[in-house]
Amino acid sequence: MATAKIQHAAKGASNAAYINNPILAMFNYFRDELDEHHDRRERVIKASRDITALSKKMIFTLQRARNLLAPLPASLDKEYQTRHSQIQALFSSIAPDLQDLNAHRYARQISGGIQEYIEALSFHHYLLTGSLIPLASVRDNVRNLIEITPADYILGIFDLVGEIMRFGITMIATRGDVSKLLRDIRELRMQFEALDTSVGGGGLLGKEVSKKMGVMQTCVEKVETAVCGFIVRGSERPKGWVPELAIERAVGGGRGGNFDEDGET
From which residue to which does any coiled coil extend (predicted)? Predict the structure, then answer.
């Protein structure tokens, strides 16, 4: 009996020492912090993927419009606004994860979704107004739930050129006037080519710009070629002719692949 009491007392003392061990408490804190970081990172990644998919669906909706500087048809506008509201809900769900001192740790994970959202938002703005959406307006659209950086804004506008190209090709095929559209994307090309993203210029965007620059230039050249061909040989083409879109596959591949209207590859 005495031996059992001694063993029980020794075990209790050992447990107390184990619980009160400062090194163990420190490692438990680190474990909990790391678990919280991984959970938070996964939430942001999932939200970014969902935002990307919904933004692509918004773009496909907008590509079904047929007029520049005109309100969207009611059915398209309803579809666009529904998906826009879903994106707003996703931004709200991850806002707490992106608003404290550690928010910078998750900027890379959310950046892709933000860029795709800016592409959709800016395309919508361009179709309605014929102008480029300001960074301030993009920030207003997310209601300051998350930070929209100048870098993400610029990269999203790079991708906008591709959507304007697709819309312009459709307008050419339906014999619409694309003179304004062509002037606008040429102006964007000129401004983008003037960007200094070298280390000496601050290295703001670096490799991302170099990857997108070639795609953007190809998009503008595609519209220029289609317009030139239509002007020079338009009278020779049969009714119902549609311009060759082979380059568009390369453009789509440069941005992560082609998607159907449901956002699937």
Answer: none
